[in-house]
Sequence to fold (261 residues):
Amino acid sequence: MKPTGDLILDTGIKPKKSKGQNFLTDGRVADRHIGYAEIQPGDRVLEVGPGLGILTERLLATGCDLTCIEIDDILAEHIGKTYGDRLELIHADAVKEPFPPFDVFVSNLPYSVSTPIIFKLLEHDFRTAVVMVQKEFADRMVADVGSPDYSRLTVNLFYKADCTVLETVPASRFNPRPKVDSALVRISPRPAPFEVLDEKTFHRVVEVAFNHRRKKIRTSLKSAGLPVTEDMPFLDDRVEDLRPSEIAMLSDAVYLERQRI
Fold:
């Protein structure tokens, strides 16, 4: 495979900051990225944003059944011409395009779509995902309660999967060079570590509470039109101080009250 700089020139692509187009240049990082995914021959693999193909080429070498989703016209044409019928190419916006069934998810995610893609990913059944994201986003994925990085993303991920930061990737490993470092993160689905009476209510309470993370839970719920009764737990706390299991207790109380009304 040609060096990334040569491929940028060959394709005529002008990397767009708005799309987060920073192309990985270090083949050793790409090798480790694929290795972390532990792909077996015949696995259905989904790659979002193949770009110039540094991961795509290595994925095909595993003997997997590969589908790529690419939104950029020039990059989609490059992937199609380079790999032909060795893969299935979907030229579309991965945020809007329905995902095909897959066992393994591999992607170098632009920061601008990291949140919607991760939330979309969690709606699917899969064995493992290994994603490259900005380091600050990775910190949010695995943050502890009370940390400034603790967020809606943290809680929703914890509910669905184990999440591990595998390594930090310096900004110097990309062309053009971004302003911040990136990180490789593994997401491994597992049963929820706690039960909730209604998942929809749980996710709504998480969303509402983190939209007003500095406010007390009582105020957050009221501002969203959710019921509040004095026997509900944690009304005088802030969501950034609640463990996911405690947010689940709160959501159960909200759900039961809504059923009663």
Remarks:
- The chain has two domains: 4-189, 199-260.
